[in-house]
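Blackboard transcription, Thursday session:
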Amino acid sequence: MKFEHHVFVCTNSREEGSTKGSCAEKNSLELMTSLKRMTREYGIENIRINKSGCLGACEMGPACVIYPESIWYTLPAEKEKMASIIEHLSTGKICHEYTMVIE
Ligand code: FES
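(Written on the board underneath:)
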C-alpha cells in the first residue's frame, strides 16, 4: 500500500533527571494516539503514523516529522490545537505555527 503521508512521532524516554529530557515526558505517546484518532475522525486515509525512537530534536519535542514533505513539528501540548497538524495531513498545507527550525 502506498501512503500519502507517513508520520513519525518520537516516543523516546530517558532516565529521570536527564538534561536532554525526552519526548515521552512531554506526553508524546498520548499525543500520537490523539493524532491517530483524529485522522480517523476526519476520514484521512492512506496515512501511516508510527512511533519512533529519538529523532535528535529532543529539546524541541514532542518531535514529529511528516513525509514526504519532510516537515518537522513540535506537537502542541493541547490536543485541541492538533487540528492544524490534521489540516496538513488532509490538505498538504504546512502549519507554520508548530514547525521546527532544524539546523
Ligand atoms: S527524545 Fe524525542 S527527539 Fe529526542
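Lecturer's comment: The first strand starts at residue 5 and ends at 10.
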